[in-house]
């Protein structure tokens, strides 16, 4: 790894994840959502910006199946996907 | 011829002076004569003071020497005191300076710019800067899982959360517990790479012949775009390595 302790060399310091670790999906409850997400990625040449809806669905599935701590999706960076599409004016002012 | 005169004792020089003076005055002063007088005169004055050196001249010279020593000591002491005060001041100044240096270089795991957990809600994606995140998966030599990423790369922008998947399979007939760590290359970009949730640093147990999907939910901090050192960084490689964890082993976890 990067444990060369030479003075002056920058070494990588791994950090713990903010919300901890995902419990393993032993029963494949969210596998369908994952497949949908992977297909979307393949179709869009692995552009994450186009597949955010699918990733949101996957995380929602995890939350529903006790595989992830429930949290408002806006706290996970999906604020823009939460706004109802017709009212774009509201979307700008929503916190 | 005049050289022996210089090594004569004082009495001899006095005699010689009288000899020189008895030369006919009317005779023109030859160069030799003047030279002889010059030599003798030069020799005499120091000799006159020979006896008085112990008292007068010593007193005068000694006093000035002492004063000289005093002033010199004073200046030296002043310089030493100034250096001492300077050192103390430097040691106080070193604390904020070192903190600044650590923030800039990311040493020592200090809280560096680019890692703020509350900003996930409020950050806006920097859509102009597209980064390619490549994925790499490794296992330790004695770890028998099949561990690989499900996508080779993904294109993200700073400020946008992204999801990526790895897959792990336990092909053996025994349950194996694994624990992983990760690495980000280039190292300086690692401070901007924030994982919201992943599967690292905790024991993951796989039953025999079980295969699971392991997600990584992360984002690149928007401040990445403003860092001049990251201006030419377009590819970030995220590498996970799985090790086998023995039962009852207590491993040190970073940041916990």
Automatic annotation (TrEMBL), chain A:
Q: Where does it localize?
A: Cytoplasm
Q: Does the keyword Cytoplasm apply?
A: yes
For this protein, the record's InterPro entries field holds: CHCH (IPR010625), COX19 (IPR051383), Cys_alpha_HP_mot_SF (IPR009069)
Main location per UniProt? cytoplasm
Asked if the record carries the keyword Disulfide bond, the reply is yes
The CHCH domain sits at 30-63
Instruction: Kindly list the residue ranges recorded as spanning the membrane.
Output: none
Keywords on record: Cytoplasm, Disulfide bond
GO CC annotations, alphabetized: mitochondrial intermembrane space
Where does the record place a coiled coil?
A: none
Q: State the Gene Ontology BP annotations.
A: mitochondrial respiratory chain complex IV assembly
Which branch of life, at top level?
Eukaryota
Which residue ranges are recorded for the region named Disordered? 75-95
**What family classification does the UniProt entry report for this protein?**
Belongs to the COX19 family.
Protein name per its UniProtKB record: Cytochrome c oxidase assembly protein COX19
Q: Which organism is it from?
A: Perca fluviatilis
UniProtKB/TrEMBL annotation, chain B:
Q: Which domain of life is it from?
A: Eukaryota
Q: Give UniProt keywords alphabetically.
A: Membrane, Transmembrane, Transmembrane helix
Report TM segments.
none
Tell me any Pfam family this protein matches. CtaG_Cox11
Q: Which SUPFAM superfamilies match?
A: Ctag/Cox11 (SSF110111)
GO MF annotation terms:
copper ion binding
Entry membrane topology: Single-pass membrane protein
InterPro entries assigned? CtaG/Cox11_dom_sf (IPR023471), Cyt_c_oxidase_assmbl_CtaG (IPR007533)
Give the subcellular location. Mitochondrion inner membrane
Per the record, GO CC terms? mitochondrial inner membrane
State how it assembles: Interacts with CNNM4/ACDP4. Interacts with RANBP2.
Biological role: Exerts its effect at some terminal stage of cytochrome c oxidase synthesis, probably by being involved in the insertion of the copper B into subunit I.
Classification via NCBIfam families: PRK05089.1
In Swiss-Prot or TrEMBL terms, this protein is called Cytochrome c oxidase assembly protein COX11, mitochondrial
